[in-house]
Design brief:
The structure is a homodimer.
Chain A lengths: L8 H10 L15 E3 L6 E10 L10 H18 L3 E12 L4 H18 L2 E10 L4 E10 L15 E5 L4 H9 L9 H7 L15 E5 L3 H11 L3 E5 L7 H6 L4 H6 L5 E6 L4 H11 L3 E8 L5 E4 L17
Parallel strand pairs in A: 3-4, 8-11
Antiparallel strand pairs in A: 2-5, 3-5, 6-9, 6-10, 7-9, 8-10
InterPro entries (chains A, B): PurM-like_C_dom, PurM-like_C_sf, PurM-like_N, PurM-like_N_sf, ThiL-like
GO molecular function (chains A, B): ATP binding; magnesium ion binding; thiamine-phosphate kinase activity
Protein name (chains A, B): Thiamine-monophosphate kinase
Chain lengths: 320, 320
């Protein structure tokens, strides 16, 4: 060849949009892999989440919220384990029609959230696709060895708690599809920008935890099954936002099964209630008791508050 | 709902195909994240690689080789850093038409390679797509702190070495496309199943390394640029397999720029030659000297062995 080798377009793309996001250990995003030194005496936590255009986000969602949503969904997995964020890797599978402006805004959103949540990009991969945009994010966190909250730790008689409010994300999707009105904008914002409940310090307080991503009833079913228990849920106790209440009671099943909440679902022994309330107050996050684990039940019973049970078409959302 | 909650189809899919691959720390693939305890006193290495159907593999490639190729490409990144495999996460973005049999064979291939290379599945994500199959694999390895081989460490006068043979993968793709004949089957096999050069113990011997994935000339350009040097390459010295030689000299540019080699490209000080040869012999991997880093050159000069330089249409492969 001779002469200075030009950077291939893939490298220029990475340099343009992602170099500013790279943290220590990322080696400038120019090496074969990244280096990670977990903080001394801590255990690593790792998870991956993938979002597909038109499946997990809408083609006309603002690009800065797409990156932030992807990062926040992954951060929510760390929150569910009581872990602290460390860094992430990003795989971008890019259709040709998706332009530079879109990725500039996408990366700007990530930069804002990185600063807010205290982590940085470690590495990634960029490739072309004839199909829709696919974004895959691998997140790394750390936790006290043996201290990670798990799904299988709930005990018979533990109360069921949730953080924040349930259903806003699912209703927000309906708002963006034009199926529901919400002048406040709260619901659409909650769909696009979930708030991972990091840093609550629930280790030693909760006996089990997971984040609510695929629908409250279905996800509670997972927590119960992994713990070898059944559970009941009082539908009237499930915390709803003002915007969700305004939508009306006909939307309650959507709230209970719709997914996209990214709130924490917790199993808490009754005598840990005060400690839970203190931790939640410190973190500025509301918590609400919505039911109980019960070994006498099979699966999840959704009670209607009038002595009956609520029939739901489906418990939640499957990605296949 | 009442009654035992059925597993959503996504969970059944994971259980059917991937539970058998799960290692320690994967938490049965049922939790929000996986736990990783790096071996005491070791630094973690992490990388992600994504493959898209029709871009990185052919729709009719045997499914067991698709999973193995994805894993091996990632293992090759670890090899380039002189790291030891630890585990991996897998994200499957699945078109509806891609059936169960395909994934059963895909997972069987992964299972074989896991056992061979000594690592296990830690976690993942599964989701549907209206587009082509996208497979994203995040690999974890470990290395002596400070001992990772990097791209930027080459010094003026270091010799350039490669492991194995160059060009077989690129020619194999042409064979599978019907553009080239190879009765031996060697070339197609090398395209489908690269051999990551793990465990050679090149730390302290090589001053820089990377794996050749996007074309020898282009990748050498990266190594040179990251090291602030130029380099020359003697085309006649580049090691070719018997099958590649049989293809004829007209295919040499394809070998030099085609990619999919997954051999190691090394910068080695001349007085480390004996140590390199010993390490390679222990690992049963041939190594060949093909050029030298030279601060007086800009970029990569490909010499033709007759006092001239070789003109190449492009140095390698860009993924965008």
């Amino acid at each position: 060849m001779g002469g200075s080798a030009p950077l291939p377009s893939e490298f220029r793309f990475i340099r343009r949009h992602f170099s500013a996001l790279a943290g220590e250990g990322a080696l400038g995003l120019t090496d074969d892999a990244a280096l990670v030194r977990p903080p001394k005496g801590r255990e690593l936590v790792i998870a991956v989440d993938t979002m597909v255009e038109s499946v997990h986000f809408l083609p006309d969602d603002p690009p800065d919220t797409v990156g932030r949503k992807l990062l926040r969904c992954n951060l929510s997995d760390l929150a569910a384990m009581d872990a602290t964020p460390l860094g992430y890797l990003l795989s971008v599978t890019r259709p040709h029609a998706r332009g530079e402006d879109w990725f500039a805004a996408f990366a700007a959103g990530l930069r804002d959230d990185q600063a807010h949540y205290g982590l940085a990009l470690l590495g990634g991969d960029t490739t072309a696709t004839p199909g829709p945009l696919v974004l895959s994010l691998t997140i790394l966190g750390h936790v006290r060895p043996g201290g990670a909250l798990r799904r299988g730790g709930a005990r018979d008689g533990d109360d069921i708690w949730v953080t924040g409010t349930i259903g806003d994300g699912a209703l927000g999707l309906r708002v963006l599809r034009g199926e529901l009105a919400d002048a406040s904008g709260v619901l659409a914002r909650r769909y696009r920008l979930p708030e991972p409940r990091l840093g609550l310090g629930l280790g030693g307080i909760a006996s089990a935890a997971m984040d609510v991503s695929d629908g409250l009833v279905q996800d509670l079913g997972h927590l119960a099954r992994e713990s070898g228990l059944g559970a009941w849920l009082d539908a009237a106790s499930v915390p709803l936002s003002d915007a969700a209440r305004r939508a009306g009671p006909g939307w309650l099943p959507t709230c209970l099964t719709g997914g996209d909440d990214y709130e924490l679902l917790l199993a808490v022994p009754p005598d840990h209630e005060a400690a839970l309330r203190r931790a939640a107050a410190r973190g500025g996050v509301p918590v609400t008791r919505i039911g109980r684990f019960d070994r006498a039940l099979k699966g999840v019973e959704v009670r209607d508050g009038a002595g009956g049970t609520l029939a739901l078409d489906r418990p939640g959302w499957s990605h296949l």
